Amino acid sequence: MRQIRVLLAVFCAGVYGLALPLIVAARSLPEFTGLVEAYGPAVVNISTKQAKSVERRHPGFSVPDLPEGSPLNDFFRHFFGEEGEVPDDEIQARSLGSGFVVSADGYVLTNAHVVEGADEIIVRTSPDRREFVATLVGSDKRSDIALLKMEGKDLPLVKIGSAKDLKVGEWVLAIGSPFGFEHSATAGIVSALGRSLPSENYVPFIQTDVAINPGNSGGPLLTSMARWWG
Q1: How many helices and strands in the chain, by DSSP H and E?
Q2: Nearest Cα residue to 32 out of 222, 230, 228
Q3: Global model pTM greater than 0.85
Q4: Radius of gyration of the chain, Cα coordinates, nearest whole angstrom
């Protein structure tokens, strides 16, 4: 019986020793609620409108050779045009992305590809869902950054940190509008620093495993301070 008690005591000590690092690790996990509360209101939803001329065709269809003066000639030409062409239509192409306010008077950073070719840029704030028509101040395609200006006063803003202080393995948080779901937060770590795209000259991008979906583009990547997410 004494031998069993000794073994039981050793076993319990081993379990305790195993559980202690797990408890310490759990306590060291990051807490993101403060970042969301502090910087979430400064993250905006961006949509654009662009007029495009589209020519619709009916492949393989041609106007039949009908007798001159046949009423069907006018019918086919009205609906299918000559050789299956239909007059051009003007449509509105919409782009959806994110951005964040960097000055209290309404300057907003986003990705250049989010607003590329836009005829109209609409910025919607969160959580009050106010809409503003913004103007494009400038953009840089190589670094994929664009600066917008909307009317505003005393707006919540994101403080931009320094990438030189960022470390691989550091926890980071992204806030944006994936698939149009505004004010969505996802977390991960910094996977690598100083990355560049194969088709471009060197641009030091941040690589991360944070879940990013269409619509997140242009939103901030947050640690203790906000840093640009491309």
Answers
A1: 4, 11
A2: 222
A3: no
A4: 28
* Tokens linked to 71: 């009423």
Q: How far apart are the first and last CA of the chain?
A: 66
- H-helix or E-strand containing 8? helix 2-27
CA dihedral 132, 138, 144, 150 (to 10 degrees): -10
Among all residues, which ones are annotated catalytic?
113, 144, 217
pLDDT per residue over 83-113, tens digit each? Answer: 444 444 555 667 789 999 999 999 999 999 9
Cβ pair 212, 169 in contact under 8 A: no
Compute the distance between CA of residue 208 and CA of residue 212 in angstroms, rounded to an integer. 9
User: Domains in the chain and their CATH numbers?
Assistant: 33-42+159-228 (2.40.10.10), 46-149 (2.40.10.10)
At CB < 8 A and 24+ separation, what contacts does 65-70 make?
Answer: none
Residues 6+ apart with CB under 8 A from 179: 213, 214, 215
